[in-house]
Design goal:
The protein is of the alpha+beta class. The protein has helices at about 15-30, 45-55, 65-75, 155, 175-185, 190-200, 205-225, 265-275, and strands at about 95-100, 100-105, 120, 130-135, 140-145, 170, 235-240, 245, 250-255, 260. It folds into 2 domains: about 15-105, no CATH class; about 110-275, no CATH class. Strands 3-7-10-5-4-6 form a 6-stranded antiparallel β-sheet, with no helix packed on it. It is globular and about 55 Å long.
Length: about 280
């Protein structure tokens, strides 16, 4: 979830007018302000939910606080949440709140790493055997699974979402396949990548898919150089999650401390090659 512009309506002598406007909008759009209409909301799938909140995000007649409340009501009305996540508190947004219909999340610098902890992933410093992840397959961030089997908390991971157990996934990394696959993508060899995929029981990767893999890999390298600086990110990065600080005030909002990994390919691509199990 990433959502949405801050608009304030005049407050003086407008309470009666605002009540009438909100009531009219509720009936016309099926979107109410506040909890009085939340019992009428029901979303059977994520598509319906996202259509609904995108409309909320683009409304210019309500405040950022009202948008946020309505999005939370919609999330509560989503019957099967799956990997859908929603920011838990307004404090995790930038001061302008919403931009172009999307929450403007105040993400930490340095890809969320504590700068002094950042290390290059390499064959001599490989990925952990076990990983733990919150969210869908479009992201590249993983945490390790502690030896005691107790997963890191959202506060330790520094992820600003409402708790959603169904969005948590665990699995293993196949390090041998991982390094060979990155080498194949880096050198532009679809043949070598397909050999890895087939050995892992996956179907052949198409030319179109391979172009996506290469684009993702190149974008990661460029972003790493821009956000982190001069570091070898050939195989990704590992380190410790930094505390989440409000950029405008420096206030610590989440403690961080979890061991985390960022890979050049997202979870869907790693799954496609057979580096991680399907989830």
């Amino acid at each position: 979830m990433e959502e949405l512009g801050k608009v304030h309506m005049p407050a003086e002598n407008t309470h009666f007018f605002e009540s009438k406007v909100k009531d009219t909008l509720s009936k016309a759009e099926g979107v109410g302000v506040g909890s009085s209409t939340s019992s009428n909301l029901k979303f059977k799938n994520a598509g319906e939910y996202f259509d609904h909140i995108n409309k909320i995000g683009r409304r210019e007649d309500i405040t950022i606080e009202e948008k946020f409340e309505m999005i939370h009501e919609a999330y509560a009305a989503l019957e099967v949440k799956g990997d859908v996540t929603v920011v838990s508190d307004l404090k995790f947004l930038k001061d302008n709140g919403f931009v172009e219909g999307r929450m403007n999340i105040d993400w930490p610098d340095k890809m969320g790493f504590a700068e002094e902890s950042i290390q290059s992933v390499s064959r001599s410093n490989p990925l952990p055997e076990n990983w733990d992840r919150v969210g869908g397959k479009g992201g590249e961030n993983f945490t390790t699974l502690p030896d005691n089997g107790v997963p890191y908390t959202y506060d330790e991971r520094a992820i600003p979402y409402l708790e959603n157990p169904s969005a948590r996934h665990v699995g293993t990394f196949d390090n041998e396949s991982y390094f060979e696959a990155i080498d194949a993508i880096k050198k532009g060899s679809l043949e070598e990548l397909n050999k890895i995929a087939l050995e892992n029981g996956k179907k052949s990767i198409s030319n179109v898919e391979f172009l996506d893999f290469q684009a993702r890999y190149s974008a990661f390298q460029e972003n790493t150089k821009r956000l982190i600086g001069d570091i070898d990110a050939t195989y990704g990065l590992k380190g410790v999650a930094a505390p989440w600080r409000k950029s405008s005030t420096g206030e610590v909002l989440m403690e961080g401390g979890a061991e985390q990994i960022v890979t050049p390919l997202n979870a869907k691509m790693l799954e496609r090659i057979g580096i991680i199990p399907e989830y």
